[in-house]
Amino acid sequence: MTYIATFFTHFGAIEFKRACASRAWEARLSPVPRSLSSSCGTCVIFKTDDVPSPVDATEDTEQIVRDEDGVYTVLYRAEGS
Amino acid sequence: MSFLKNKTDIIVGGLIIGVVAALLVLFGNPANMGFCIACFIRDTAGALGLHRAAAVQYIRPEIIGIILGAFLVALVKKEFAPRGGSAPMTRFTLGFFVMIGCLMFLGCPFRMIVRMGGGDLNALVGLVGFVCGILTGVFFLNKGYSLKRTYSLPKLEGTILPAAVVVLLILLILAPEFIFFSEAGAGPGAKHAAIAISLAAGVIVGAIAQRTRLCMAGGVRDIVLFKDFRLISGFVAILVAALITNLILTAATPGSFFKLGFAEQAVAHTDGLWNSLGMYLVGFGAILLGGCPLRQLVLAGEGNTDSAMAILGLLVGAAFCHNFGLASSAKGPTANGQIAVIIGIVVVFIIAAVNTFGKKADA
Known about the structure:
The complex is a heterodimer. By secondary structure, chain A is α+β, with helices and mostly antiparallel strands. Chain A is built from 1 helix and 5 strands; from the N terminus they run βαββββ. The longest helix of chain A is centred in the N-terminal third of the chain and has 13 residues, at 10-22. At the A-B interface, α1 and β2 of A face β2 and α9 of B.
C-alpha cells in the first residue's frame, strides 16, 4: 500500500524518510501532490505492508494519508494544523 | 510526451501569464515591466507616502488582483486556510532584504523572466546570481533549516490582507489627495494600463498561480531536491510566451517591445556584478521564505499570515530603498545599495545558520 506524509518543514520530511529506511519501508522525497494540498512543501511517498499509525509521525509531520490511485484517506493529522 | 505528464496545466498557465505580461506593456505599463511584484509593491509604498520618490508612486492594481484572484479561487476550491505563527519577524526581515536585492537588480524574479522575454541580457546575469542564491538556500534546507511549523488561525486573520487590498483599490479609484501618484512623464510610476485591465490581469495571474503553485524560486529548488521539472516548466512557458508576444507586437505595432542586448534596456542597468549579487540575495531569501515574491502574494491570498508578514517586509524594504538611496537606477547601483546588499547577504546567512545549526545546539 502507498502512503503520503506531508510536513511543516523540509527537514521534517528528510527525518521521516530516514525513519522509513530504518523500518525497511520504501520511501522517496517528492513535492506534495497538488491534488492533496495547495502547499508547495516536501512530502514523503512510502510503501509498506504495515499500517502507519500516529506513533509513526514525527514532530514535524502534518498528516499521513493512504493513497489509493489519487483517493486519499487521512490516517493522521497534527493537532492545530 | 512523458515529460508533459502532470505539467500541462502549469505550461498552459505560464503561457497565458507570459502573454498577459507582454500585453500589459502594450496597454501602458513600463517597458519590460508587464509584471514586477517588487516594483509594484514599491510603487504602492510610494503612493501611500511611505517614500517620496516622485517617479515611482502608484497603487498597482496587479498586486491587488493577484491577492484577490488567489483568495477567491482558494475560497471556491475550499483551500482558504488561515494559518501562521512560523517565525513572523524572521519572515518580515527576509522580505525586507529580498526587496533590497530586487531593487538592486531592478526587478523581482517574475520581472527577470519578463526582461529576458524583452531581450534584456542583463537579466541572464541576474539569473546566474538567482540560481546561486537558490542553491545556497537548498544547502541549508538539506542541513536542517526550518522556521518551525504553522498553526491554524481564525478566518479573520487570513481575511485581513485581502480586505486591506480592497481598501487600496477603493483609494486608487477615488484618488484622494493624500495618495501620491507619479505625474505624467515623471517615471515608471506614471506608466500604467487602465485600472480594470491591470486588475483583471492580476486576478488571472493570481488564480493561475494558486491552481498551479507557480513559483520562480521553487522551479530550480525542485530540480535540485527532487529532479522534478514541473515548476520550472511554468517559468520557461512564461519566458517563451513573453518572448513570442514581444516579437509579434514589435512587428505589428509602431512600438518596440524587444531589443536584444545589454545597453539601454528599459528600467535596467548594466552592472553585472551587482545585478548578480542582488538576485543572489533574492534567490537565497526566497528559498528561506518558501517561495518568491509572487508565491508570497498567492499564499497570503490563501490565508497564510506568515506570507503576509513577508509582504509587509517587502513593503517596508521598498520604502527604505527609496528613502535611503538604496535602489539602483538606469545609471547603475548606488554605494548605499551595494552596502545594503552585502549587509542583506550577511543577515540572510545568519538567519539560515541560526535556524539550521542553532536549533541543534538548543536540542
